[in-house]
Amino acid sequence: MAQGWKSAFVRFTEWFSRLAYINLLWIGLTLLGLVVFGFIPATVAMFAVMRKWQKGNLNEPVLQSFWGFYRKEFAKSNSTGSVLVIIGYILYADIFILNFDESLTMQILKLLLFILAFVYLMILAFFFPAYVHFDMKWYQYLKMVTLMVFAAPLQAVLMLLIGYGMFFLLAKMPILVVPVRKFD
Known about the structure:
Oligomer: single chain
Number of helices: 6
Shape: globular
Protein backbone atom coordinates (compact mmCIF):
# COMPACT_ATOMS: atom_id res chain seq x y z
CA MET A 1 0.00 0.00 0.00
CA ALA A 2 2.75 2.45 0.95
CA GLN A 3 4.74 1.51 -2.15
CA GLY A 4 1.78 2.41 -4.38
CA TRP A 5 1.46 5.80 -2.72
CA LYS A 6 5.16 6.54 -3.12
CA SER A 7 5.25 5.54 -6.78
CA ALA A 8 2.15 7.64 -7.48
CA PHE A 9 3.84 10.61 -5.79
CA VAL A 10 7.00 10.07 -7.85
CA ARG A 11 4.97 9.94 -11.07
CA PHE A 12 3.14 13.12 -10.07
CA THR A 13 6.40 14.97 -9.37
CA GLU A 14 7.93 13.76 -12.64
CA TRP A 15 4.96 15.06 -14.64
CA PHE A 16 4.86 18.28 -12.64
CA SER A 17 8.54 18.92 -13.37
CA ARG A 18 8.05 18.10 -17.06
CA LEU A 19 5.17 20.57 -17.32
CA ALA A 20 7.12 23.24 -15.42
CA TYR A 21 10.13 22.73 -17.71
CA ILE A 22 8.07 22.91 -20.89
CA ASN A 23 6.38 26.08 -19.60
CA LEU A 24 9.78 27.66 -18.98
CA LEU A 25 10.83 26.71 -22.50
CA TRP A 26 7.60 28.18 -23.85
CA ILE A 27 8.21 31.47 -22.02
CA GLY A 28 11.86 31.61 -23.12
CA LEU A 29 11.20 30.93 -26.78
CA THR A 30 8.22 33.28 -26.83
CA LEU A 31 10.55 36.01 -25.59
CA LEU A 32 13.22 34.91 -28.08
CA GLY A 33 10.73 35.53 -30.89
CA LEU A 34 10.07 39.02 -29.47
CA VAL A 35 6.67 37.83 -28.17
CA VAL A 36 4.79 38.79 -31.36
CA PHE A 37 6.63 36.32 -33.58
CA GLY A 38 7.46 33.80 -30.86
CA PHE A 39 4.10 33.14 -29.22
CA ILE A 40 2.53 30.95 -31.90
CA PRO A 41 5.61 28.82 -32.79
CA ALA A 42 6.41 28.33 -29.10
CA THR A 43 2.84 27.21 -28.45
CA VAL A 44 2.95 24.85 -31.42
CA ALA A 45 6.26 23.41 -30.17
CA MET A 46 4.78 22.95 -26.69
CA PHE A 47 1.76 21.10 -28.06
CA ALA A 48 4.02 18.98 -30.30
CA VAL A 49 6.23 17.90 -27.38
CA MET A 50 3.20 17.15 -25.26
CA ARG A 51 1.73 15.10 -28.10
CA LYS A 52 4.97 13.07 -28.18
CA TRP A 53 4.61 12.48 -24.47
CA GLN A 54 1.02 11.39 -24.95
CA LYS A 55 2.14 8.85 -27.55
CA GLY A 56 4.58 7.40 -25.00
CA ASN A 57 7.83 8.94 -26.23
CA LEU A 58 9.11 10.19 -22.86
CA ASN A 59 12.82 9.51 -23.29
CA GLU A 60 13.61 12.04 -26.02
CA PRO A 61 15.39 15.21 -24.79
CA VAL A 62 12.78 17.91 -24.30
CA LEU A 63 14.95 20.91 -25.17
CA GLN A 64 16.15 19.45 -28.48
CA SER A 65 12.66 18.36 -29.42
CA PHE A 66 11.11 21.70 -28.45
CA TRP A 67 13.78 23.70 -30.28
CA GLY A 68 13.44 21.49 -33.36
CA PHE A 69 9.67 22.01 -33.56
CA TYR A 70 10.08 25.72 -32.89
CA ARG A 71 12.55 26.22 -35.76
CA LYS A 72 10.75 23.90 -38.16
CA GLU A 73 7.31 25.45 -37.65
CA PHE A 74 8.35 29.10 -37.15
CA ALA A 75 7.36 30.50 -40.55
CA LYS A 76 4.37 28.25 -41.23
CA SER A 77 2.82 28.66 -37.79
CA ASN A 78 3.33 32.42 -37.83
CA SER A 79 1.65 32.74 -41.22
CA THR A 80 -1.33 30.63 -40.14
CA GLY A 81 -1.49 32.33 -36.76
CA SER A 82 -1.33 35.80 -38.31
CA VAL A 83 -4.51 35.02 -40.24
CA LEU A 84 -6.22 34.08 -36.96
CA VAL A 85 -4.88 37.21 -35.24
CA ILE A 86 -6.14 39.44 -38.06
CA ILE A 87 -9.59 37.83 -37.90
CA GLY A 88 -9.65 38.33 -34.13
CA TYR A 89 -8.57 41.96 -34.46
CA ILE A 90 -11.30 42.65 -37.03
CA LEU A 91 -13.92 41.09 -34.71
CA TYR A 92 -12.66 43.15 -31.78
CA ALA A 93 -12.66 46.37 -33.81
CA ASP A 94 -16.18 45.71 -35.10
CA ILE A 95 -17.54 45.07 -31.61
CA PHE A 96 -15.74 48.17 -30.30
CA ILE A 97 -17.15 50.37 -33.08
CA LEU A 98 -20.69 49.06 -32.59
CA ASN A 99 -20.58 50.16 -28.93
CA PHE A 100 -20.99 53.77 -30.04
CA ASP A 101 -24.43 53.29 -31.60
CA GLU A 102 -27.38 52.20 -29.48
CA SER A 103 -29.94 51.64 -32.25
CA LEU A 104 -31.79 48.33 -32.47
CA THR A 105 -30.10 47.40 -35.74
CA MET A 106 -26.65 47.92 -34.27
CA GLN A 107 -27.54 45.97 -31.15
CA ILE A 108 -28.64 43.02 -33.29
CA LEU A 109 -25.42 43.29 -35.28
CA LYS A 110 -23.45 43.41 -32.04
CA LEU A 111 -25.20 40.26 -30.81
CA LEU A 112 -24.32 38.48 -34.06
CA LEU A 113 -20.71 39.63 -33.70
CA PHE A 114 -20.59 38.30 -30.13
CA ILE A 115 -21.82 34.93 -31.38
CA LEU A 116 -19.20 35.03 -34.14
CA ALA A 117 -16.53 35.96 -31.57
CA PHE A 118 -17.58 33.00 -29.41
CA VAL A 119 -17.24 30.66 -32.40
CA TYR A 120 -13.85 32.28 -33.12
CA LEU A 121 -12.68 31.49 -29.56
CA MET A 122 -13.82 27.89 -29.96
CA ILE A 123 -11.84 27.71 -33.22
CA LEU A 124 -8.77 28.97 -31.35
CA ALA A 125 -9.26 26.27 -28.73
CA PHE A 126 -8.99 23.57 -31.40
CA PHE A 127 -6.32 25.23 -33.54
CA PHE A 128 -3.10 24.22 -31.77
CA PRO A 129 -3.95 20.54 -31.19
CA ALA A 130 -5.10 20.23 -34.82
CA TYR A 131 -2.01 22.04 -36.09
CA VAL A 132 0.27 19.59 -34.32
CA HIS A 133 -1.73 16.52 -35.32
CA PHE A 134 -2.11 17.22 -39.05
CA ASP A 135 0.17 18.51 -41.80
CA MET A 136 -1.86 20.75 -44.10
CA LYS A 137 -1.91 24.17 -45.74
CA TRP A 138 -2.97 27.16 -43.61
CA TYR A 139 -6.44 27.50 -45.13
CA GLN A 140 -7.08 23.78 -44.64
CA TYR A 141 -6.36 24.15 -40.91
CA LEU A 142 -8.92 26.91 -40.65
CA LYS A 143 -11.51 24.92 -42.56
CA MET A 144 -10.94 21.71 -40.61
CA VAL A 145 -10.89 23.40 -37.20
CA THR A 146 -14.12 25.24 -38.02
CA LEU A 147 -15.72 21.92 -38.93
CA MET A 148 -14.42 20.40 -35.71
CA VAL A 149 -16.06 23.18 -33.69
CA PHE A 150 -19.44 22.48 -35.25
CA ALA A 151 -18.95 18.70 -35.03
CA ALA A 152 -18.07 18.79 -31.32
CA PRO A 153 -19.52 22.00 -29.86
CA LEU A 154 -19.76 20.58 -26.33
CA GLN A 155 -16.03 19.83 -26.21
CA ALA A 156 -15.23 23.29 -27.59
CA VAL A 157 -17.40 25.03 -25.00
CA LEU A 158 -15.90 22.85 -22.27
CA MET A 159 -12.37 23.78 -23.38
CA LEU A 160 -13.31 27.47 -23.26
CA LEU A 161 -14.88 27.14 -19.83
CA ILE A 162 -11.86 25.34 -18.41
CA GLY A 163 -9.53 27.94 -19.93
CA TYR A 164 -11.62 30.78 -18.55
CA GLY A 165 -11.81 29.05 -15.18
CA MET A 166 -8.02 28.75 -15.02
CA PHE A 167 -7.62 32.40 -16.03
CA PHE A 168 -10.19 33.51 -13.44
CA LEU A 169 -8.56 31.41 -10.71
CA LEU A 170 -5.09 32.75 -11.45
CA ALA A 171 -6.38 36.33 -11.67
CA LYS A 172 -8.21 36.10 -8.34
CA MET A 173 -5.55 34.07 -6.53
CA PRO A 174 -2.13 35.11 -7.85
CA ILE A 175 -0.46 32.97 -5.20
CA LEU A 176 -1.11 30.02 -7.55
CA VAL A 177 1.25 31.54 -10.11
CA VAL A 178 4.77 30.26 -9.54
CA PRO A 179 6.90 33.24 -8.44
CA VAL A 180 9.69 34.19 -10.82
CA ARG A 181 11.89 35.80 -8.21
CA LYS A 182 13.18 34.43 -4.96
CA PHE A 183 11.69 35.92 -1.80
CA ASP A 184 14.14 36.65 1.03
